[in-house]
Every structure is written in C-alpha cells, then in structure tokens.
Amino acid sequence: MTQSAGLYTIHDVARMTGIEESKIRFMEALFCDYFEFRGRAFSSRHYTDRHVSVLRKIDELMNRDHMPAVLVRAELERFVQARKSALEIVAVTSGKGGVGKTTVAVNLAVAASRAGRKTILFDADLGLANVHILTGVVPPGTLVDVVNGLATMDQILADGPENVKVICGGSGEPDMANLDERMTTLLNRQLKHLASLFDTIIIDTAAGITRNVLHFVGTADQVVVAKEIATASKIMTMPE
After folding, report:
1. CB burial readout 131-140, b (16+ within 10 A) else e
2. Of 35, 46, 54, the residue nearest 1 (C-alpha)
3. What Å distances lie between residue 149 and 27, 40, 142, 154, 231, CA to CA?
4. pLDDT tens, residue order, the chain (240 aa)
5. What is the 3-state secondary structure (H, E, C) of the chain?
C-alpha cells in the first residue's frame, strides 16, 4: 500500500473497499468531477481517503440501493455538501510580518485536532511559506506543484503534528506571491473538494492586504488577526 500522505493505488482501493477494479474505473468515468485526475494515465493515478469515501458512497447507492446514475449524483452531491456544511474555516492573518501569525495558526490546528476535529493546516503564504518549518514536515509536494499541474491538492497532503494534515506553500517562489485570479480560484476549488472529509481548515495567510491574502480571508468563517509576538507566546504556553 502506498504510504506517502495516505495515497493508494487502485489495487489498494480494491482491497480496502471490496469494489472490483473495473467498477472503480467505471465510477471514475461516470463521476469524474469528484476525482480530478485530469487525464492522468491509469498507472499514475493515486487515490486519497476522500476518493475512497466517495467510491464507497457511490457503490452503496448503486449496488445496495440500486439507484440510477442521475439519482446517485444527486445523493452524492448531498453527501459532499453535508460534509462541507459542518466545515469551519479559520484564517489567521496580520497587517505585518514577524508577529507570530504562523505560530498561532499551527497551535490552532493542533488544538482543533486534539478536540477531535479532522483538521487541515493550509499554508497560504504562497511565496514565503514556513508552516513546514514550524511543523517539521517534509511534504510530498507543495502548492507550486498544484499550480503547475503536476499534482492535485490531495496528493500533496502531508502528515503534521497531532494528526493535523498540512498543505505546504512555496518557499522563495516570488511568482506564487502574485497569482492571478484564475490560479487562486483553482486553489480554492481544490481546497473545497478536499474539505469534504474534514471538520476544520486553518489558513495561514501571508502578511499584508494583497489580493491573495484578501481572497483567502474572504473564504473563512472566522478571521484571527495576529497583532504582536506576545499573543503567539501566550498561545504556545496554554495548558492542555
């Protein structure tokens, strides 16, 4: 079984779910918008926990409930939306750098995970990312790979502290700091697809009020503004 960030081959998925490989291919073709393989060859496709959950739901609807494809799609959309409706998105931002914003974001993600919520820590400081440094993560890929079409967001998920899943941005990538609207929309769409299996997303934005920062802040349900280093220090020393 593929171990990197919870990625599985089709053989792994067939063993995990009991669904024949030919049926998995059929489901992919029929409901391709839920898989986002974007024409990638069968041999290079890797499945995530979200893909496995969707496949199980499709199999349940088609084989147990004997639903036609049009009704399966409607039920599948309700299934995905139900997960999203329970999702809480928190953006951590600041008007200036060096105030402990990333420290706050990491601690919020760890606290959410300890509270039993499946959590993603998303490093949206796209050009000067540093979440991977604070969490000690060596990611299988970064958002640079997503933007360049080399990977989906599912495939760059890394295992962070306390079961937090981490999505790492680019470090020392000036072009990433000024993505156009098309690219930020792509990242937002992939994040929403990925979020269907999670309860909380903590977004660590870049400092300032650039277009990219305002875009990610605008997706959040709650916004935390880090003002000074002391704020971060207090969170670091909070008792369990």
Report:
1. bbebbebebb
2. 46
3. 23, 11, 11, 13, 38
4. 444 445 688 898 999 899 999 999 999 888 887 876 655 555 567 787 778 888 988 998 888 778 888 899 888 888 777 666 667 889 999 887 778 889 999 999 999 888 888 899 999 888 778 899 889 988 888 888 888 888 888 888 899 999 899 999 877 766 776 777 788 888 887 887 777 778 899 999 888 888 888 888 888 888 888 876 544 444 443 334
5. CCCHHHCECHHHHHHHHCCCHHHHHHHHHHCHHHCCCCCCCHHHCCECHHHHHHHHHHHHHHHHCCCCHHHHHHHHHHHHHHHHHCCEEEEEECCCCCCCHHHHHHHHHHHHHHCCCCEEEEEECCCECCHHHHHCCCCCCCHHHHHCCCCCHHHHCEECHHHCEEECCCECCHHHHHCCHHHHHHHHHHHHHHHHHCCEEEEEECCCCCHHHHHHHHCCCEEEECCCHHHHHHHHCCCC
In the numeric block, which tokens belong to residue 99? Answer: 């105030």
Tokens linked to 229? 């280093």
